[in-house]
Design brief:
The structure is a homodimer of 229-residue chains. With 229 residues, chain A is α+β, with helices and mostly antiparallel strands. The first copy, chain A, has 2 domains: 9-104, 2-Layer Sandwich (Phosphorylase Kinase, domain 1), CATH 3.30.200.20; 109-228, Aminoglycoside 3'-phosphotransferase, Chain: A, domain 2. Chain A has 6 helices and 10 strands, in the order αβββαβββαααββββα. Chain A has helices spanning 9-16, 56-74, 115-131, 148-155, 166-180, 221-228; strands at residues 24-30, 36-43, 46-53, 92-94, 97-103, 108-109, 187-190, 199-202, 205-209, 216-219. Chain A has a 5-stranded antiparallel sheet with strand order 1-2-3-5-4. Chain A has a 3-stranded antiparallel sheet with strand order 6-8-9, with helices on one face. A two-stranded antiparallel ribbon of chain A has the order 7-10. In chain A, strand 2 (36-43) and strand 3 form a beta hairpin. Chain A is globular, with a radius of gyration of 20 Å. Chains A and B meet through helix 1, strand 1 and strand 6 of A and helix 1, strand 1 and strand 6 of B.
Chain lengths: 229, 229
């Protein structure tokens, strides 16, 4: 929830010159996301989000995320694809960070959705899954069930300093969960972080699904669980 | 540089209903200022800054700041006055904080002004001082020369833990400064924090002077010194 990398107006103006997006009119650092720096940027031709990716891991995965957004955008879904520069590139570098200029979407994140808003969000999730049916790139779920045992091992006996016996209790719980984990649910690319903050709405209408930086290949029920979580 | 108070979309929509500003379209917390929470708010009728004042001292001074902004706005200067609600009120409460909905100004803060930009900023400062000639409200400068001796006393001998003899050196320096402090320079309401971050520009043109929350009655040269500082 912070701007980690400062971008001067001068550097931003020079960056925007790579694109056919007009001249810089306003730029405000926005407190959005936890891992990246984001600016809301207005130009004489429109409004954009500038994202600077702060962690190296994101940089390696950016081509996957951007291809996924282009795929959904190409099918008319309300997602924020990256803007291509005059040479067709979507992934850039700015202030030493990987950076993308991204389409701005209107709408607000609802804190306590009504039934009608929840139905709209569910429908948008279903449309997204249907649109990803023929998306062929894959990415492992770095937060998926296979990652939990190594994570538990890394925490190790230090968990017992939080509460006596915690490591054993979690180890047993994890064994039960892994043994019963569903193996045959429909799998595709999923959003993997589709909680209310990442669903933009106006009234009862979904105007955007955003923040695809956990997107990966996993069971579709993963999105359903996060949305209900 | 953070959003301290979270405002839900639901609470913000209800708040905006007090004003004749249309319906909420987008809201983003912005990383601006150090003491307040700020949101960039778009409605069907325009764009605004929502500021929630986090410190009690600001609340007591808000009527002064808002009167000063109205005075400058009334004379056609590019400053961001508070929007009046349907009952004419400018100062509100939201999420337990004093809050104002403020006119949005385009422009960016320049990091390394060119000579032409510096001349424009100086001219804008001069116009502001001229426009404040007949502004009659007063407010002491809480960061002014009278505040330095009490501040030094509060720090006291603990300064010597930073560097041996530091308290004595600063005491002597302060005595010299106070003895030579100019007593007869022109005085009026001044901005008191008019450094490049608080001057919005497009190209070589000043599009706004912002962040008047240190404004006070002092010598005009104070603004000149801050702008050069």
């Amino acid at each position: 929830m912070a701007v980690y990398t400062q971008v001067s107006a001068e550097a931003l103006s020079a960056f925007l010159n790579k694109f056919d997006v007009g001249e810089l009119v306003s730029a405000k650092g926005i407190a959005e996301g936890v891992e990246n720096s984001n600016y809301l940027v207005d130009t004489t031709k429109g409004r954009f989000i500038l994202t600077l990716y702060e962690k190296r891991v994101a940089a390696d995965d950016l081509p996957y995320f951007m291809a996924l957004l282009d795929h959904l955008d190409g099918k008319g879904l309300a997602v924020p694809p990256a803007i291509k520069d005059r040479a067709g590139a979507e992934i850039h570098e700015l202030e030493g960070r990987p950076a993308c200029l991204i389409k701005f979407l209107t709408g607000v994140s609802v804190t306590t959705p009504t039934a009608a808003q929840a139905i709209s969000a569910g429908a948008a999730m279903g449309q997204m899954h249907a649109a990803l049916e023929d998306f062929t790139l894959t990415r492992p779920n770095s937060m998926g069930v296979e990652s939990w045992a190594p994570l538990l091992e890394r925490c190790g006996q230090s968990l017992d300093q939080i509460a006596p016996g915690l490591f054993d209790r979690l180890s047993n719980a994890l064994k039960r969960i892994v043994a019963r984990w569903p193996q045959h649910l429909p799998t595709s690319a999923v959003h993997a972080d589709l909680f209310p903050d990442n669903v933009l709405m106006l009234g009862e209408k979904v105007t955007g699904l955003i923040d695809f930086y956990f997107a990966c290949t996993d069971v579709r029920a993963y999105d359903l669980a996060v949305m209900h979580g």
